[in-house]
Amino acid sequence: MFRAMQVVLRGEGRRAAAGGFAGHCGYSTASGSQRLAGKVAVITGAASGIGKATAAEFVRNGAKVVLADVQDDLGRALAAELGAGSASYTRCDVTDEAQVAAVVDLAVARHGKLDIMLNNAGIVGSLARPELGALDLADFDAVMAINTRGVMAGVKHAARVMAPRRAGSIICTASIAGVLGQLTPHPYSVSKFAVVGLVRSVAGELARSGVRVNAISPNYILTPLVKRILRSGTLTRAARSTGGSWRGTSTRWKGVVLEVEDIAKAALYLASDDSKYVNGHNLVVDGGFTVGKAPNMPAPAQ
User: Looking at the keywords, is Zinc-finger present (predicted)?
Assistant: First the structure.
């Protein structure tokens, strides 16, 4: 049941580095390549996990970042670590369009523009895998409200302020659960397929206004959420059923483990001018996990 946790997840994750010192993530927000010098970013789901690592990476590269989340204590602490001159925190529940609009307007009011919008907030929903006939549509609606509708709200309001300036990069955190079916419970999987579809739907229209829209689809990462499930034994059993540890099934490269910093660097590329002609793309960061599947066939008779 818990290939579900192969893909997660914003809102939870490894410890991120902070303001000018080498943090636990292994990189520093001191001098960097400055690929985002002068740029302003909003990150939803920024207080932990992929969002936190990406905020640190953006700041290290010269951006001013508005951190948006519902985890107030974590968000404020991260803003303090990254430095008042580089980051600020504001509460934002992405299921409320007015709050998404407000965080975009806050970035513009505070910094004069918005260059980058990372729509990263997301949840996995119920970890149950009932038969389709027993699917809980209330859980489905709750997951879609954050993972898909919340992303659409972010795209809508980022485009609202970017299009008049004819510049901007909108990035949406999707998942390999939006590339292959049956990896996660249906609500999460459907929500991530929808995010990839959203990107492809709007990219052509926004390109006419000079705004790029792309997605990132990570494989699973050892976040606090996954650690909690590992402690419960659920993910361990699922991993054993695939013939290896959860780490071993996360990559085609032996000994290589996907980390939040890898997704942060993918976001940095899509946010920077290095990707100036990349639009409507789903950047899959999975070590080749989704490119093929070995056939489930019996061994030939001797």
Answer: no
